[in-house]
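Fold this sequence, please.
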Amino acid sequence: MLELWTDGGVIQVNPSPVGLVWSWVLIEDGKLSACDWGKLTPEEIGMPTCSNNNAELYAAVRGLEYMEDCSAFTWYTDSQVTIRRLTERTKMKGVPEWLALRTKALRRDWNVVLVAGHPTKAELKAGKANRNGHMVSKWNKLVDELCGRAKG
C-alpha cells in the first residue's frame, strides 16, 4: 500500500514577500519510504509574492511527479483548491505559468483524500479533526513539520 502526503505553506504572511515552503512524503506499507521538502522565493517562482495555494500546488506537483511511474497509490492533501486544479479544468488564476503547465500535464482522476490540516494531538489520537471531521494522520503532521524545517 502506497500513500503520498503533500503540504505547502508560506513564510510569515499570506501572500508572502519572503517565500513558500513545500513537502511530500511517500509511505509504503506504513513506513516512510521517501520524502522531499524545500523553499522557494518569489523571485524563483516569478511572482511578486508567494501564496499558500501556490505552495500547496507546488508540493503536490513535486510529489505526483515523483510518483509518475506508479499508478496504484492514494494521495492525501489538505487543499481542496489543489485537488480541483489537479483533477478538473479549474482556472489557474494567480499560478505562475511554469507551474500551471506542470499541473495541467498531471491532471487526471487521482485517488485522492482531503484531510484536515495541522492536526492537534487530540485529533491525531482520535484519527479525525474535530473542526471538520476529515481524517488526520501522523503523516500529515510529518509534512507540516517538514514545511517548518524548510522555513529554517
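Strands lie at 2-10, 20-28, 31-40, 74-77, 112-114. Helices lie at 42-45, 52-66, 80-87, 97-106, 121-126, 138-151.
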